[in-house]
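Supplementary Methods, section 5.1.

A reviewer requested that the exact input to the structure prediction be made available. We therefore reproduce it here, unchanged from the version used in the analyses.
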Amino acid sequence: MTRFGTWESYFYPPPDDATMRNVEDIRDPNALHSFEYSATALRQRQLNADPSLIAHTYDAEHLRAIHRYLFQDVYEWAGEYRTQNMSKGNAMRGFADVTTGEIDRYLADAQRLVQQTEWGRLDRDQFGAAAANVFAHVNQAHPFREGNGRSSNVFMEHVAQRSRFTLDYARVSPQVWNQSSEFSVPDRGRYEVVPDSLVPVFRHIAVERTSTTTPGVDPAALARSPLSASYPKAPDSSKDSGRGAATGQQSPARGTARPGRGYGTNGPGVGR
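The structure derived from this sequence is encoded token-by-token as follows.
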């Protein structure tokens, strides 16, 4: 068993069990969120300035390298797969199962989609559909204990570099982004992602590339602040250890079988 082989092992022991273990040994969760935001924002600016820092292979190692680079100053496990299953809100199906190889399977599907698509020939509508499909697979893989949103958004910026578009995440509200992402999760008992709700989002944030175009801001980061902690509860939710999940926005149902999916504690916990 690795050091991070249980849900609780990602956190400090009591009385600091509301805070995830981190490189700087910060024990206050608000201070950790503030440090995480500033540290990853700096690393993301470095990646935006020099994309060659990461090999663009569009596979699992590509995404892991992004996460490792962004979070190297924050978490010891930066770039490593989570060891525990996670879900978000009232989703009937959790993110990729760590016990069945689903993480690698979803990321392999995403790589296949990237490689099979002639990105340079796509118009805005076609780009929106193709990008939504890729992102839905990466989002469902949700390979890391924390920082999936920031890593996957950088990954999608790298994908967009193959097209005539760049992505301006500031053009979509955090509420719409989160709701659309949550709706793309497969139905219970199914493997297939449902990217429909993401198509208009990617179509809207696609901006014609110019020599001065720069990547937009991560909408999840815009919504996040040092006071917006969303650390999940431990598997035994009867223990109030201070790791309660933050309440997210209620979202309109994608269909009668898909109720609103705010952040919640379905399964072992929730994660970004």
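Confidence is low (pLDDT under 50) at residues 220-272. These observations are discussed further in the main text.
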